[in-house]
Structure formats: structure tokens, C-alpha cells
Amino acid sequence: MPDKKIKLALFASGTGSNVARIVDYFRQSSRVECSLIVCNKQGAGVLQIAEKEGIDTVLLDKETFFRGDAYTGFLQEAGIDWIILAGFLWKIPPALIRAWPEHIINIHPALLPAYGGKGMYGRHVHEAVLQNGEKESGITIHLVDEQYDHGRTLFQARCPVEPGDTPETLAKRVQALEHTHFPRVIEELVS
User: Fold this and answer.
1) 108, 126, 142, 181: which is the annotated catalytic residue?
2) Which CATH number fits domain 1-101: 3.40.30.120, 3.90.1570.10, 3.30.70.240, 3.40.50.170?
3) Which SS3 state, helix, strand or coil, does residue 84 take?
């Protein structure tokens, strides 16, 4: 009997560019399967990726996620081994953290511990980096714990902040790092 595939649940709130890269990366994998896409925003682009790829989706109800069981039972029944936060903008509730200890991975568009915490995502991060005159930015891939952007760092990659950068131009360089490194770091950790 062949080994059971490692099942990933990909959580995202927006267009899903990281989700698309992860799905593509593991498409031919004999060990890892992207088996579920979880979203908290109706009409988000990531749902179109799920439909195109034939991956099951779950649209989260806020009340159930934060004050209910956080979908723990559902995810356990689906056999999810790892939760991957790929542009997911809600804080993960304690129920999920307890059910998947050290099995929830997040990517953050800055070099943590700088520019992390509540409200620090996407454009907000890039604006803060530019406003403070930083010479470099980058990405941090980390495990998730009960605090925003706090869990153990697994990987960081850096890019320069160029003279004349805007939040959009910096975001493109940071996103290129995400797309290059996130799938590989996931594979190294879960395999």
C-alpha cells in the first residue's frame, strides 16, 4: 500500500497568487496534495483558482471561525495534515493552533520581527518600510502561534529597497521572493 499523501489546506483571503504557485509546485508530487482551499471572502480570486484546479473549497463564516469550533472538526475529518496561510488576513484562533500545533505555516511580506503585528499586511507593510527609510525588505516564513507574526522563523529572504520605490514596486519584488521560496520551504518542512 502506498504511503498516504500529506494533505495541505491553503488559507487565503485575496487573489491567491501564492496559492496558485503552491498548487502548481505540488501538482505532480507523489507525497504532498493541495486538498482544500479555505477562504474568508466571498468572490475572492483564490476561489476561481480552486474551481479551475478542481480543489474543494470552504468559505468561512466569521462567527463559527472565531467563536465556534474554528472548523476544527471539518478539517480533521478532511484529513488535513498542515495548514498553510498564503495571504490569509484573519488571526488564527486558539482552537486551530491547538489542533495543529507547529503545523500551521504563514508567510509575511517583511523581515520579522520588524513590521509584524495586527494590521501589518500587504500595502501597509510596504508603506511602513518605505516611510522608515529601510534599505532592505523581504519575506519571513514562520510557524503560527497565538500572537500575530510571532511563531518560530523557518526562513527569510531579502531584497533591496530601491531609491524611488513605491509600495507597488516594492510589493512586486517581495512577491517574487514569496513565489520563489514559499513552495520549496513548505515541501522541506512537511515532507
Assistant:
1) 108
2) 3.40.50.170
3) strand
